[in-house]
Batch of 4 targets.
Target 1
Amino acid sequence: MLASAPEWLDIAFVDESDANALRHELEDADVLLHVLTPVTAAVLKAAPRLKLVQKIGVGVNTIDLETARSLGIAVANMPGCNSQAVAEHTLTLMLASLRRLGFLDNASRRGAGWDLPPDTYDSVSELSGRTVGFVGYGSIPSKLTAALAALGAEVIYYARHTASDDAARKVASLEALLHEADIVSLHIPLTPETRRLIDATALSAMKPGAVLINTARGELIDERALHDALVSGKLAAAGLDVFATEPVAENNPLLGLPNVIATPHVAWLTPQTLARSIDVLVENCRRLKEGKALLNQA
């Protein structure tokens, strides 16, 4: 994947669990490539030559931005590089949740798939005729709207800005979206204001039998409240690519529920995403080397 990198760009790969190797490489690093492992003040202070933390992705909430600024270290991200992959994964989670694919896959593997009670299929659903509500309306929801409309779904959204897409209808508030949507999909950054935005109160405002999808950040959801809503039947299902603590613990109660589809924060991870990301990485390293303005500096 990095075969096309220029000769002047020397890239070292370190296992994120190998703290000693990371510390050794940071002593000479000009750029730190960041995926998920938090970039703390201690990490930044251990890198005396560091000039740039390049996020491979969009969210920079796992980077100590205040310390980076105080040390004169630039931070940049890659908006748009993973949008196609996350959009497709979001749609996958919607369909898998509606059709109970996790439950049916497990039953089939146990040899019980052909012996399920007939009312099992009373709880599956089609996208057609459903209302999909996006919390936030950036590049990922905008990519999905046409596909959802083609499948017969109505698309609504709640966001600060008004989209130019006539196929999606803006609603006045988060509460209005929660009341109307059959499927709620989260596409907003994690900030102090959005942390646990989807709490017990928000979940109680959702339609009975609704589905919740999260490919954004795990801490947007109060996981205990979500567990209660899924167990009680208030929500039909949830499709989760992200969790409040990652890697998600094996004993996380959500993982034990048959109406939860879980993936390990890989919505963004495709060879195509990595190829686009490497193009941005190389370009920003070139700009850093030549003293030019960086792409997408946070």
Target 2
Amino acid sequence: MKLGIIGSGMIVHDFLTTADQVANMTVTAIFSTKRSENIARELAKKYNIKRTYTDNEELMADSEIDTVYVAVPNFLHYEIAKAALEHDKNVICEKPFVQSTTQAKELKKLADEKGLIIVEAITNLYLENFKQIQKELNKIAPIHIVNLNYTQYSSRYDAFLEGKIAPVFDPKKDGGALMDLNIYNIHLVSALFGLPDQVQYYANMQKGVDTSGILHLSYPDKQASLTASKDSYVTPRSFIEGEKGSIYFDGSTGTLDNFTVEMRNEQPKRYNLNKYPHRMAAEFNTFAQMIDQHDTQKADEAFVNTLETMQILTKAKNSMI
């Protein structure tokens, strides 16, 4: 996989620290706005990236690039991903994928017509710990209660309170706790349990944006409460509770560093199976293999979860109170 990166923000800095852990991938070029050109050049020098661009059309026209990583603010995902597909590039698009199910279906249709791969970069679903959690569910079933919590006091929250609104806190740019953090919880629940019957989002609003909130998902046989907060501090703990036992873990639902299975009348068993120290390495190794092998079946399977997540997100935004 020969990768071109669109963006030079925090997620790109984070990704580049682990790019050398991704097999069969070369980061060929990076795009940034002219305002951030010096940042892109510094990244290119530090990580031996051949070229920098300040025109994303030029990057997409680069014949050495076969895949574009869309790592820009949420509201720009759709137009940039579409442009990349139109330039016959595979696409890895940061979460949340796009702003609506209509946009998601349009991009997938275009990718399929062109014989290209498009996937959403969502770290937790590609971690070994997540795959083991899937296997452990039957042991604790039937499951009745799910509580997932991703609380992370935002590094931009203090500036937000002072009136400096970054994209992650700008509702016009698809910011907020639901889109930025609860997206991880939604992906997990969707991948584990599918679509709920009812969706209701209870948000704490400041300056017109949800800085924290609780998303309630109702299933015929279980209730799920998904908490996300950018305005609070806690070490979060998440639970999946069944009649025979429970699964729980501390910390970010985006990293799933470890988890514990506790059966009734048995000693808890702790798992830590993640292969890589960085949360993004597993997903990008999967994407590189998927693209190199042109594995459309895996791409289709991943898109099912993306689309279900988009459906839940849409209902959540429409139900916000």
Target 3
Amino acid sequence: MTNIGILGAGRVGTNLADKLAAAGHHVTLGARSPGDTTAHPAPRITIADQRTTAGTTDIVINATPGDSSLDRLTDLRTELSGKILIDVSNATRDGDDGLPGDLCYPGSSLAEKLQAALPSTHVVKTLNTMLFMVMAAPETLASPPTVYVSGDDENAKKTVTGLLGDLGWQPAWIEDLGDIRTAGATEAMILVVPHILRRHGFQPFAVSLAR
């Protein structure tokens, strides 16, 4: 059992919390304030503020809005020191229809910015190329999906790969792209998402690699 903190108590955070708790981990769901979540804690899930969540858990997942994640997590530098930070967010600016429009960090990525701002933290980028419901239920798609992993620390990536298995990801579906610089490629994949949603509606999908 691992103590996992999730920063962000919206759809992404609560979805991951439920599956990880069901796999036997203890999860702390970090909300900006108690009123920011309507989640009803299940067994093995507690709710705390984000600073407490970052400071009292062993592995932290960033599920906060990507356009504000850098400032928010930089403020938690001390609490995140020495820990694995799993970044599942994409830093985008919304278009007029509320869907992702432009990248906040063209030529880079949120994960790269986080790693530079948090040099004592092991940042791993993953789970950012799919709709939130697929993150914890990849088996529900008709075709085998792909989840990409980027990070500088090999041991951190191995740990994250184990957690992906707890979320239902089979080893053959996990693609290690290399160091944290490769996160720029997967974060840019978010630009295809609004076009798919406009044509097909809010249906589960993942941007996957076919062989």
Target 4
Amino acid sequence: MSKFRNAVLAFVCLAAAGLASAQTTKFPGVGREATAKEVAKWDIDVRSDFKGLPAGSGSVAKGQDVWEAKCAHCHGVFGESNEVFSPIVGGTTAEDIKTGRVANLQRADYPGRTTLMKVPTVSTLWDYVNRAMPWTNPKTLTTEEVYAVTAFMLNLGNIVPDNFVLSDKNIAEVQARMPNRNGMTTAHAMWPGNEFGGVKKPDTNNKICMKDCTPEPKVASFLPDFARNAHGNLQEQNRIVGPQRGADTTRPEPKAGTPAAAAAAAAPVAAAKPEKNESKAVIALLNKHSCTACHGVDKKIVGPGFHEIAKKQAGKVAYLTEKIKVGGVGVYGPIPMPAQSLPDTDAKLIAEWISKGASK
């Protein structure tokens, strides 16, 4: 009887040990293991030695087309940006391309820092565009489009010629021309290498302290209106590197209930509402031509929402058609809308839909 009991106890212990072992590698009832194909979709990072870079290519000319359709509304037609983002291009010289160090980064009086001034590796540009752009619809660019857009940005910075085709075969040659390729350093002790002789001193020397703590501040007031223009009109203080437009601080921000806000929101002459099928067809056109990257139907994204435009431009089909085609700036703020290359018939259909109220 004693032997039988010991055998049963041993079996139970082994079973429990097996169950515990299984539970350390699994989460019963919670999801499942990702397949190799699913993991591959997330494993898209590109290292500075170009490991992870997919095969492909894209020309500067193709990149310009993609840029104007999906990138220019945020970054400017020539990478000079606008009120939304800092410039991508500018501040680098032919001498920087030779030395691999951007001289203007050493100047305390230089007013701006562009992407091409700072980024040391072309793989960083490729990787970020691939995973994060366009910002309203990331990971939708094809591999060819990512190569092409990267080539176009490099061309704007005079790093590659107009007829250049960037590919996984020649990207290492382009790396040798990056203006700030020699500007990256590990001499900050955040992840020290051999240049420190094996001494790994952290860049901070903090001590754990849970006494005499500074009390958490409480916001008791906001910046008053009279202080808005304390440093002059920010919009007029344009920087050398691209038009980094600031707000026009000579004018107060429109507030709800003020005459300015009421005038902006005033409904114009009532227009006929589009049919439901018409609205669906036009919204499909808006998606096709990337209009929704900047404009929501009922909300602002980069530019005003279509409802806001409809309130101000009801019935103005010809005016809206022209604005869609040629672009403009100043009607809804300082952010410019580049000219659009969509067919005239599509532009007119969109204009008619907006003029009738832009209903869904």
